[in-house]
Amino acid sequence: MEIEFLEHQCLPHRNTNWRSVSLSVYVVLYVATAAVSLLTVCGNLLVIISVSHFKQLHTPANILILSLAVSDLLTGVAVMPFQLILLIESCWTSGPVMCVVFNFVTFQATSVSVHTVALIAIDRFLALSSPFLYSQKISPTVICIVTLFNWLFSLIYNFTLMFVNGNFTNVMCPGKCVYVIDGVSSFIDLLIVFLMPCTLIIILYTHVFVIAKRHATAIRALQVHNSTGSSKNRVSDKSERKAAILLGILVIVFLLCLLPYYICSLVIPYSNADLFYVRNVAVIFFFLNSIINPIIYALFYPWFQKSLKLIFTFKVFNKDSSLMNVL
């Protein structure tokens, strides 16, 4: 089940009271909305520039991070501003066409993000469980093809989901932005976009950390050997384990942001007005993940820190800057 937005009807008396009682708070909310959206766009744009520009970063794992950053950028541009304004105004003010675009982009960004995180889990599992097979078979080109397929599948799937349920032809009332999904479609959507990928993510990352722990034990046992080959293997294993742990942090944060919304959507009936704000908070948590991801990269990934330094000092405009060392 993807993000479901309630039927929002304009409440003029409520908005009038809000503005008259606390105009300053109203302005602050709009400034905060602009700041959050801008931070999301800028943060993910820096990730996209870093991975795309520097050739050293053209690795399978980073291509998946690039895909996640693109979906987060899409969220920051076309979903987050409208959703936050919707929460402030309590009604839809952007017209029916933008409502359809908003709902479709929301579906697309959601499904791409979830499936990309699942692909990240698969990538780390293969890198640790079968390192020789991974180095021979999993190339950046292969991951690019898989990533494009992920986006294309989500595009066709979400278009079909909305079209079958008549969301492109429904006439909407002014002040409302809704979409309709029948019970069967909702159940299929729940399986494809939430239960199956999240179950896969949890299972694979459980195996990843078990394998990483086993590798750590083996490395400690081999520390008595000082041969060159052993040293190379030790560095390689440490690198893979570190990548698994860092991407594990990314996945855990993603799940923590994702689960509150889906728990609300499954447990709380949408007719229950008393829990309206609980659902709104869950939706905000879901979208805030798009802001958190670049912060995780900045805190834990040295390559992102180095690339940021090169970007902010305008060295990326130098000749052959794409060949600079950022690792």
From TrEMBL:
Classification via InterPro entries: GPCR_Rhodpsn, GPCR_Rhodpsn_7TM, TAAR
GO molecular function: trace-amine receptor activity
Transmembrane segments: 27-51, 63-88, 100-122, 142-164, 184-212, 243-263, 283-304
Keyword Membrane: yes
Domain G-protein coupled receptors family 1 profile: 43-297
Major location (coarse): membrane
A cellular component term, taken from the record's GO annotations: plasma membrane
Recorded topology in the membrane: Multi-pass membrane protein
Compartments, record wording: Cell membrane
Ribonucleoprotein listed as a keyword: no
One Pfam family it belongs to: 7tm_1
Keywords annotated in UniProt: Cell membrane, Disulfide bond, G-protein coupled receptor, Glycoprotein, Membrane, Receptor, Transducer, Transmembrane, Transmembrane helix
Record-stated family: Belongs to the G-protein coupled receptor 1 family.
UniProt-recorded name of the protein: G-protein coupled receptors family 1 profile domain-containing protein
UniProt organism field: Cyprinus carpio carpio
Lineage: Eukaryota, Metazoa, Chordata, Craniata, Vertebrata
